[in-house]
Amino acid sequence: MAERIIVQLGDPILREKSKPIKTITQNVYKVLNDMAETIYAAKGRAGLSAIQIGIPKQLVVMDCGTGLIELINPVIVERRGEEMGTEGCLSIPGVVGLVKRATYVKVRTLDRTGNEQILEAEGFLARCMQHEIDHLHGILYIDYVEELYHDRNGKKLRAADANPILAHRIPVRR
Question: What Enzyme Commission number does this protein have (predicted)?
């Protein structure tokens, strides 16, 4: 396992659509393991998609407090409810924003052995899944926000600080 460098906002790869995994190989295992090491090294962070380490493949790892979850070719098949919540991103360090997300999701995915799984999630885990699956489609949480806040003190960013980040937004319709 090896910690990977996380791609930062402004790198065009973050806007690419990730390709599905056709065959689960030793290389896929290595990437998943490296991604897990990377999120744990980033202490306190919830998830990472492969695109964030420069690999445009449909792979996600998350630990939202209940242990490591790996998603391969995930698809949200059901959403319910709606709530606003704070989100940040390893590719956009230092800031957070309020994002409206479904409170419940059902996700179809493969596990690392290639078996199809249906995962159901509520609350923070549902938010994490939606955030990371968005990455696989070139969507960033800043595409949904109007205002950004400092991640450490919660104060609203001044326009001079927020505008360069928000300039990277792409309008998203649900």
Answer: 3.5.1.88
